[in-house]
Amino acid sequence: MMNDKEIIASRIALELSDGDLVNLGIGIPTLVADYVPKEKKVTFQAENGIIGLGPLTEEDTNIVNAGGMKASIQKGGAFIDSLTSFTFIRGGHIDITVLGALEVDQEGSIASWIIPGKKVPGMGGAMDLVTGAKKVIIALTHTNKGQSKIMKKCSLPLTAAHQANLIVTEMAVLSVENDGLHLLEVHPGYTIDDVVKATDADLIINKVERMKGV
Amino acid sequence: MKDFIKKDKFIRILKDEMVVLVGGFLTNGTPETLVDLMVESGVKNLTVICNDGGFTDKGVGKLIVNNQVKKLIASHIGTNPYVGQLMQENRIEVELVPQGTLAERIRAYGAGLGGVLTPTGLDTIVEVGKQIIEVQGKKYLLEEALGADLALIGGAVADKYGNLKYIETMRNFNPVMATAAEVVVVEPYKIIEEINPEDVITPFPFVDYILVGENDE
């Protein structure tokens, strides 16, 4: 049995295609790399300065990932400075970014960097990533203590407006389109009704499939 | 490059109220000895510009814990809980800047530009107080150039001419910061005879001083 985070990560891995340059955020998004089949040639970028990020390692190097953890670089990779890294990110050269969020809404707006009065970690590279990447996938658990994180309108300060394309939770896969938020897939452990009840946002429900990859 | 210096000369450069760029990403590539010497000097009311707030015992976090910083400009402060504590007590001013915007603002200063136009931060609290400029039908925030009195550069291999290249991911903000300060001081990992000109990342005219050990010649 996969836990919630594993379900989310394995489903998102299916979105990555051969040849994609992908930036994974910290938390659930980092797990996505574990579910990409070896035959798929996906290159990961780390915002601190790696094209071709490899797995975590215990080796004695000065290579770290964007979470500051000791990591490795893949053959054919490159170390880059912050300017080049954010030229990739801001200039539309990243095919997919996968990021966590506190809230996301039916208009594709994302809140991920501040809970006023409680927690102010800062936005790091998240604002640049969601604004500059070609496709933005939000990875998050569907609810927090019973409260939906998929909202009609985000209540927390935004990371960016109208930038999320796909939302993947342990319950469902949702797509942000011009006419609203479409429910595409539901995990076999839940019914459509379960998802509707757990979701604050208005859902457009046409053809709903069983969640792939789980 | 002006000179190879020892710690006494570096400490004499330091003044209260200085604006200081410090290289590194979560302290990977931060010149820890230079930061330690700033702590030792006791200079205060500093404005520190760094990717993040470091850790309580590492990177610029050491200056913050020693209450030498009046303002921190960074993209992320979550790894140093002391920053949040000082913020709540109104004992430090923190300006949070999206990481790419931070890098580009520093680049703009180093390249003699007034600022950059970017969509990052539009429709968020980052846009508060900033000009929104429309170019070719798209909206951008005007983010102003950001420079400093002093830049502390780490993660580098230097040669005897003052050229630098960088080790692994320690490059990060170091090359851009070396372009944007009145005085640029490098703490190298090692000093070699000559870096192949094709491999130089920071050419020697950007560098003012290179720190050497007490026993070095």
Walkthrough of the structure:
- The complex is a heterodimer of chains A (214) and B (217).
- By secondary structure, chain A is α/β, with parallel strands linked by helices.
- Chain A has a single domain (4-210), classed as Glutaconate Coenzyme A-transferase (3-Layer(aba) Sandwich), CATH 3.40.1080.10.
- Chain A contains five helices and 16 strands.
- The longest helix of chain A has 10 residues, at 4-13.
- Chain A starts with a helix and ends with a strand.
- With 217 residues, chain B is of the alpha/beta class.
- Chain B has a single domain (3-114, 146-211), classed as Glutaconate Coenzyme A-transferase (3-Layer(aba) Sandwich), CATH 3.40.1080.10.
- Chain B has helices at 7-13, 32-41, 61-65, 81-88, 99-110, 174-177, and strands at 3-5, 19-22, 46-49, 69-74, 93-96, 115-118, 132-135, 138-144, 148-159, 164-166, 181-192, 209-211.
- Chain B is globular.
- The mean pLDDT of chain B is 97.
- Classes of the chains: A alpha/beta (214), B alpha/beta (217).
- At the A-B interface, helix 3 and helix 4 of A face helix 5 and helix 6 of B.
